[in-house]
Amino acid sequence: MARWQPGQCGNPRGRPKRKLFDQDLRTALKRNRGQRSKELVTALIDKARTGDVAALKLIAERVSGKPKPAELAPTATADDRLSREQVRQRLAELFSLPEMKGMVEELLLPTKAKVQ
User: Fold this and answer.
1) Distance between CA atoms of 37 and 33, rounded to whole angstroms?
2) Is it the case that residue 105 has pLDDT exceeding 80?
3) Is the separation of the CB atoms in 95 and 104 below 8 Å?
4) pLDDT at 76
5) What would the DSSP string read from start to end of the chain?
6) Cystine design at 29: which of 37, 72, 85, 102 (Cβ 3.0–4.6 Å)?
7) DSSP secondary structure code for residue 16 in this structure
8) How many CB atoms lie within 10 A of CB 93?
């Protein structure tokens, strides 16, 4: 009289998997060939330009990864600290790299200035 025989599953495919939020978000952003996604990125960069710390943090994490926790980062001693001139030299070295210059320009310059 039992509906299922012993060892036979009543739902062989299992519970249908739910769509994840990320999948739905990707699908929504891909509509119109990613135009909405580009608009959101531009809005995020604009917020970062106005000094929004959360937007700056998000951009930094997406571009270069999340920073290591503070307890794992080496602490600088008075001898390890760089002078302003040394910092300027290091920044100049970094910005002389074509890929770094392109990334910074892409993040900081308005889209209108890029076109000109």
Assistant:
1) 9
2) no
3) yes
4) 61
5) --SS-TT--S-TT-SPPPPPHHHHHHHHHHGGGGHHHHHHHHHHHHHHHTT-HHHHHHHHHHHH-PPPPTTTSPPP-TTTPPPHHHHHHHHHHHHHSHHHHHHHHHHHS-HHHHH-
6) 37
7) P
8) 10
In this predicted model, what pLDDT tens digit does every residue of 27-74 receive, in sequence order?
A: 877 887 778 878 888 898 889 888 888 888 888 888 887 777 766 555
Q: How many CA atoms lie within 13 A of 25 on its CB side?
A: 5
Q: What value, to the nearest 5°, has the Cα angle with vertex 18 and ends 15 and 20?
A: 155
| Length of the chain, in residues | 116
In one-letter notation, the amino acid at residue 33 is: R
Phi, psi values for residue 102, rounded to 5°: -65, -40
pLDDT of residue 1: 60
